## 1
Amino acid sequence: MVMGGDFRQVLPVIKRGTRAQVIDASLRMSPLWLLTKKMRLTTNMRAINDPWFSDFLLRFGDGNEDTVEGSFICIPDDMTIPFTIPENSIKELINVIFPSIQTNLHSSDYIISRAILSTTNDSVNDINDQLIDLFQGEEKIYYIFDEVEDDSHNIYPIEFLNSLTHNVIDAEIAIGQHTGKIVFLPRIPLCPSEDDMFPFKLKRKQFPIQLSFSMIINKAQGQTIPHVGVYLPNSIFSHGQLYVALSRGISRENTKVLVHPAKDFGREGVYTSNVVFREVLHDE
Ligand SMILES: Nc1ncnc2c1ncn2[C@@H]1O[C@H](COP(=O)(O)OP(=O)(O)OP(=O)(O)O)[C@@H](O)[C@H]1O
């Protein structure tokens, strides 16, 4: 069996887990780790043309970058969007990552090579809303359809009748091995699983799609984003989050960070927190 990974990146999520529990769940702590033959990939192919950027990623990913107050690292000025007031700064970040968007709305090459990453669904939704508002054209509403599983009485609710008008979305695949293919996306039933929010099981029929001009950092893991914006309205809170966000980029020039509000340490530069659990990186 061949496994691949980078312990500088975010670790498996343990709900409400302590640092010790999160570390304990890592493969690094498994007895299997000692029996594994390790091979190291040492060249960052994604950022091959920007050695400074590769080194910077490794420095703070390994927890070796100089810090202030234990965990705050300095982001070089040219990689930052100055924070003024929230609305203006976010607009500026959007303009830098999605320049001339009005003339590129229909270019899939343009759209798939850029994204803004953030920490919470709220900020992601806010940025997605601002970007989708820039698209012109007729708005169509596609209703979701909620039902309680095994509820046989509520057979034809209004939402269901509504759903008959637009049954599928026809879409063109923009990325990956099926690029260019036209596909029909139907609604599929989704059941919110883990959280026992309700005493019954809710089934929601909806289109399995999501705007992705902006996405949360964990969702971006594994992707290459040539023009990446990172919006940090609050501090990074887990191991490897800042590293995953910034290492999606290919160069210092095309990676922009907006920290809100930037913590003032009475010195030049924009500082943001970086969490590194050194125990998973080094045999200690
Ligand atoms: N040998 C190579 N030659 C040229 N480009 C490469 C090579 N290996 C990887 N790349 C490019 O580098 C980028 C990152 O590759 P890949 O997604 O496989 O890395 P990864 O280790 O999974 O990264 P991460 O874990 O950070 O997401 C991709 O754009 C890929 O095309």
## 2
Amino acid sequence: MGIPHFLVIPYPVQGHVNPLMQLSEALAKHGCKITFLNTEFNHKRANSCGGGLDSLKEQGLKFVTLPDGLDPEDDRSDHHKVLVSIKTNMPALLPKLIQDINALDVENNITCIVVTMNMGWALQVGHKLGIEGAVLWTASATSLATCYCIPRLIDDGIIDSEGIPTKKQEVQLSPNMPKMVGADFPWGGLGKIFFPYIVKEMKTLELGEWWLCNTTSDLEPGALATSPRFLPIGPLMESDTNKSSFWEEDTTCLDWLDQQPPQSVVYVSFGSLATVEPNQFKELALGLDLLNRPFLWVVRPSNDNNKVNHAYSDEFHGCKGKIVNWAPQRKILDHPAIACFISHCGWNSTIEGVCSGIPFLCCPFFSDQFVNRSYICDVWKVGLKLDKDENGLILKGEIRKKVDQLLENEDIKARSLKLKELSLKNSVKGGQSSKNLEKFINWAK
Ligand SMILES: O=c1ccn([C@@H]2O[C@H](COP(=O)(O)OP(=O)(O)O[C@H]3O[C@H](CO)[C@@H](O)[C@H](O)[C@H]3O)[C@@H](O)[C@H]2O)c(=O)[nH]1
């Protein structure tokens, strides 16, 4: 048995790169070899944002790149375009890259390919070359279980062949899982073309011997029981920094937080993909003004300046707050000045908030974010929902009301701290997840 050598390949979005980077760091600490494959575009981007790629090289991680097939100026927020281009261009280039990596390290050839969703094609390439594969599922185990159960949902007549629920009803995929309605299915809000795509991708992901999940058996016991392939190895928190940020982190917000009273600041961030429409942006700004307490708001620069108008209304003062383009989120959530997290409920943000013991105010945008909200509000009971009005807007008054309700609720605060303790007990640094990680490493030897 030699040293396992993992070739890890994330789909090029922040929400996939970050957890795979955390997993890579954990594997490297266990003595494994890691070759991290980025698209050329993302590698340049992460390097130019002054991230920590160099410190990872010191830990023994190697970086390699392949072109995604798009022009540098192409809009990479168009995921259909990115997916088609990646699948058209990268599979043909991967065998030669693997050959080159192996030629440089004849003692330790690649033993396993680890991919995130959308990169299942690399498992197919590996399969043909006789290399084992695994998946790191970057969203909740519940969303993976739901995608895995698509054939059953179709057979049972719960959804049609296009993924559309046949009637209004609640579905429970297995005991200990929350009941879901059609809007909670992870393909919700992604557009019609993505459902057949997910069905196809799930078949490819079956080439992965393990489906590693950034979760624990305390957080999602029912979902993890749906298939023996599921292996919970979360919460992935090897490091408190995201070393491959696509935007430059504004670290001045940490100094600013140092000046704020304990548990006073409302942190607002909607991850790396969600787009806040101009009228919602205005309500949010005015709602934050109404709070009469400090806030830290991440307003990501738009990928396409014509698409979103982030103009601040004249009525917005923002004097109690700080607005940044991109924040060192893990450090922010751990800062004693933070009181709560207004979040889109992306799975990474959900896990990060849980591990910091921060109560949530939830406003999901699409996909798995709705069921993540159910976990936060209904299962773990560590947050509240922000309700929309009849026009689909979260109004400024709703924001103020729910922040006040949340921060007055001592039960939610106590449960958040308890959940933090429970989750940390399981991290890859100790507990069941660390045993699972060792099991995975031993399998890959
Ligand atoms: O200012 C910021 C804001 C975010 N982050 C980080 O960016 C990541 C964001 O990930 P996530 O919260 O999961 O949001 P998305 O980027 O929207 O993630 C996509 O991928 C996730 C995992 O598959 C899904 O759960 C989401 O629905 C999908 O939108 C997290 O690690 C954050 O720490 C920062 O470092 N700084």
